[in-house]
Design a protein that fits this description.
The structure holds 2 protein chains of 2 kinds. Chain A is α+β, with helices and mostly antiparallel strands. Helices cover 52% and strands 16% of the residues of chain A. Chain A starts with 6 loop residues before the first helix and ends with a helix. Chain B has a single domain, classed as Winged helix-like DNA-binding domain superfamily/Winged helix DNA-binding domain (Arc Repressor Mutant, subunit A). Chain B contains 5 helices and 2 strands, in the order ααααββα. Chain B has a two-stranded antiparallel ribbon. The chains are: A alpha+beta, B mainly alpha.
Chain lengths: 864, 124
Amino acid sequence: MKNRPPKLFLKFFQWFCHPGLQKPIEGDLMELYEERIKDGGKKKADLKFIRDVLLLFRPSIIKPADGTYRINNYGMLKHNVKLAFRSFKRFKTSFTINLIGLSTGLASVFLIYLWITDELSVDKFHMHEKYIYQVMHNIHMPDGIMTIEPTPALLGQSLEDEISEVEMAASVLPVGSYGSDRIIQYEGKKLKVLDQYASERFFQVFSFELLRGDRATVLAAEENVAISDEIAERLFGSEIDPVGKIIEVTSEDINQSFKITGVFKKPPLNSTQNFDIVFTLETFLKHHSHIREWGNSDPGTYLVLNEKADPTELSERLRDYVSTKLTGYRHKLFLQKYSDRYLNGSYENGVVVGGRIQYVQIFSIVATLVLLIACINFMNLSTARASRRLKEIGVKKAMGAKRASLMAQHLTEAFLMTFIAIGLAVMISVLVLPYFNTLTGKAIQVDITWDLLRSVAVIGALTAVLAGSYPALYLSGFDPIKIFKGKITGSIGELWARRGLVIFQFCISILLVSSILIISSQVDFIQNKNLGFKKDHVIYFNSDGELKKTSEVFLEALKNESAVINAGMFGHDLLGGMGTTSGIDWEGKGPDEFIQFGNLEVGFDLIETFGFELAAGRTFSSERSNENTKILFNEKAIEAMGLEDPIGKIVSLWGREREIIGVVKNFHFESLHKEIRPCFLQLGSGGSSIVVRIAGGDELRTIERINEIYREHNPGLSFDFKFFDQEYDALYQSEQQIADLSKAFGVIAILVSCLGLFGLVAFTSEKRQKEIGIRKVLGSSEYNLILLLTSDFSKMIGAAIIISLPLSYILMRHWLDSFAYRIPLDIWFFVIAGTFSMLVAWTTMSFQTLKTAKANPVKALKYE
Amino acid sequence: MYQIISYNFVYYTLYMKNKGLGEFEELVLLAVCILEDAAYGISVKKEVEKHSGRSILLGAVHITLYRLQDKGFLKSELGGNTEKRGDRRKRLFSITDTGMQQLKAAQEVRQKMWQFIPQLNPEV
């Protein structure tokens, strides 16, 4: 036969059709199908065939469910469920332990699942998501390659014009490029906004929702601007249509009016770009014309490639693209998928080396391990209990029960257990979610989708199978004759399997405990490290609006306050944002010597305000003249330049001579992930922020006072200050979150493990009740009895400690390597982790062992 | 046990309630009579379509055929197969005496009623 009807539907028909009717009807269907092919072609015939099959699906054609078969199945299921409930009732301790264990395990997995889904969704909402690539910039320096986002401003347009695979390109100067907050004005109303500058194609490349305006033309003219719905609401209220309105920007660099041509919806939380307003890149270029050169890199460049493009090949081809425009350009370009950058945002020597994705991996593993521990509890308790169910199994087998049906019975128990645990786990997850959100700094909400339900079902089923299959196999495998002869005493292999599982559980727990110890001390170390300056009691705020002009008067006014210890202007924030330059020449500099210096622009008194310590010389002083021809270095820089007795020596910065007046001790001006680099401090013309050190004690009053002064000098703007130490700690937020999360999971893991241990001890001591009774009668002391009951488990935990500590050493070594400044990996961490685990285990066991050892032997021996 | 009772109950109500002939059933029955020895699913479907002028689903025909058989109006036997059908033999239907009686009874009822329509028989 040449033509076959859709196989799936034919199979379906054969499956549901009454066997007696099947052949004739199928024949009719086939005959009709052949005819229809002749009449109207295969496609039509197929469709009609499908329709016929579906419409044949009715009661009188469907095969009746075979009476006995169905009843028996149903009956068995009912029987199994009933037995499962009875066994839950009978073994209340193990039921409770399993329920708590499995539900916490499942809840951890659910929460981590939500977290991961959220992490994976970042930047995925753009329509062209699959084709958006960002051009990354590898800066080749003598001590390695640094990967940065900024690229030449001309790159985007140039690529779009010259490279056929590039469908569209957008150059985007991200929020914060200007250094301080941007203020927009509308009829006297002032508003601070997060400003972004983008080229014409921005809204075509990225699919941020545009409520008003046209994607193609919204940024077409230079004075156009698009604002977010939130800003529109705050500026105009809900009544007035913002489109066409004119807003003003008056600041040092940009001083002009703009026409609103579009309103976009505030970018969603799972977008890495977050901005309130989009000016045209042209505006920024107009006022900062030096950016319009190939040698300067400022905006990020985003490309939409066409479907046929091969990104790897194109990335290779673009490597030296800039040098075709600017001869002698040494830095290279490469492409990275835009949506990959959030999770893979770490670079080493110009190559992507992961990033957040590692945390995603770590936590998926940890959550799975917690669940695994819970599953092991289930296995251990079920198999340990076997002896109490042997007779039941024996009788069933003797009556002719097949192994499969016994397995079904025990699997039913596992599935039922998991099912109840899922219910509990979902409740726990929902209750814990708000705390989880604070912990991870997310705003995860649970939307009930098919995907979610399916995942919950799959996770649940896997758990049940994992937990239930071993007990089911084990329990259904006994030989009934041996059971009745009482010859089953538990094989050595089985004992070892259980021991192995306990050891495995504790390995994981100890691993987690020692990791927590090390991670939290590292985080502590960072937060309390001597940074080379004092970060407490320091507030800072942007110097904007009127303050730009009147900063000296303002600072004077501040210093007159008794509670203000010192204040100064600063061009940076010590939180990572700062420029570097290699444009310093000094006496004895070799021709190939190339040092990147950090460039910190400070105002008078700033060094004192932050409390940078001086190693030699003096700082800038407002009482002397010509201070802007002076310079300070850090010790690292002096060392790198190889200058001896540096005070008074002359260096040249960008061709202008500077006298070294002082050397500051090394301080951390960048993330602690990086080593301290050489840097210099020069007197800046105008800083972007004002740093104030206030006296401890009555900070609130002092800040209120500063606020008053601020308002006098800078009317119309709100006083937005930040505590420096808080912002500083926020730099290590991801480490902090990891520390908090691992703490939570570590506690859960050890708790669940101990629950299992408790169950096992309870069981063995119950089993050995008579033995203990006899021992006691014969004069054994309580201490000896406890030792007897505990020693076996202690050995297991000892083994777990021996196995897991080296493992955790290797893991933690690896993690700590990502910090330039880290704690030494002391033996004490492992000693503490080991002792702690042992103590927790002993405490757990002691609840049961004490009870057993103290029990009156008469009670145990009375019944026989 | 409960299952069995309820299942039979549904069965009973479904099949025993309308012992008479439905309109479509009558058409199918007539078609089987017309086709004599060649009445099976498709031929019946075509016959009914030809006379009634409406398109009919194969499933509906089959269901009706088996229902009529259950009611005792039709009997069936497995017939030969053609190349098109592979090894799937046709089930050939033919009318039983009860079926014929039922058909005739239905016809008579109508005939009688027709006679009493004044518009058609002005002299009565």
